[in-house]
Amino acid sequence: MATIDGYYFQVCTKGAERAGKRVRDLTLGTGLDPADFAAPGWRGSAEAMALLVRNIWAALDDEFMGHTARGVRPGSFAFACELALEGADVADGLARAARFYNLLDAGIATGVRATAAGLEVEVRFAQPARDPDHYFGEFWLIIWHRLACWLAGETISLLSAEFDYPRPDAYFEEFKYLFPCRHRFDGAARRILMDGHALHAPIRRTRDELEAMIAAAPLDIMTIPASDASVARRVRQYLTRSPDLTLEELAAATGLSPHKLRRLLRAEGTTLATIRENVRRDKAMRLLTSGNATVEAIAEMLGYAEARSFTRAFRQWTGRSPSAWRAGTG
């Protein structure tokens, strides 16, 4: 199961906290300990995050999780997906769902339109100050991309993402995984651009599949495209065990040619370099937090030729050296 950085668990509950809800109550039945959220290097499962989101929906009676002036009753996402399923194609399905949400007039205007470059989804918050951490704005954009992937039954590549606020350095490494594409910050709007395939891709889902997805919502949507059956997931599993495996070795392990492996990873919106970096980051944080291995030994375990290369990479991930990170978690 995919994992999510603790930062997102911290900010996920902020809307509910402003409404007077206690984090401890919101985590009941999720297996989560709120004390872990701020622990350096801690990551929770996507399944636990989905349970937490469902608890917030129920506690506030609001699928927008307290981030807009007016709430959206639970069941709205299910109805929007029913409308999307009736679309002539993926682009039409998303447009139908967006029209429904816009009619609710809850505080987020969502536009879906075809451009020369692909399918664009733009969102505008009536009161951006209600989402100061940009958590729900990013979550909302991700949902539209993942819904497109779900409707098509395949991963539709993200080409670019624009945001009307500065680059989020505090969680940018995780951000890059959620938005695996070109980024622009301090822009004029919040929008994503999907590959033009989304403009005419047929809807391949059935009513039964919709009911199953809604029953598990938002888990299935959150884990697309990083699903357990994806090529990216298989590659991540191999690299977790042996982080220095080459493209050729991974291709042989997955039964694919190197060219096809690269192509399939691109279709899932990622690259071998991105997966390798994420695996190394997660393992490095675990080793530094819970073990006594030297920085040099950890660098070797992660496949770096020298400790200096590892230290440089770790500074890019966290803004701190491995030694400073360890000192801060001890």
Task: Explain what the structure shows.
The structure is a single chain. With 330 residues, the chain is of the alpha+beta class. It folds into two domains: 3-199, no CATH class; 229-330, Homeodomain-like (Arc Repressor Mutant, subunit A), CATH 1.10.10. 52% of the residues lie in helices and 11% in strands. The chain is built from 17 helices and seven strands. It has helices spanning 6-12, 14-18, 23-26, 46-60, 76-85, 90-104, 135-152, 172-178, 207-216, 219-222, 231-241, 247-254, 258-267, 272-290, 295-301, 307-318, 322-329; strands at 3-5, 43-45, 108-114, 118-125, 158-162, 182-184, 190-195. It has a five-stranded mixed β-sheet with strand order 3-4-7-5-6. It has a two-stranded antiparallel ribbon with strand order 1-2. Helix 8 links the parallel strand 5 (158-162) and strand 6 (182-184). Helix 5 (76-85) packs antiparallel against helix 6 (90-104). It starts with a strand and ends with a helix. The model has no long low-confidence stretch (mean pLDDT 88).
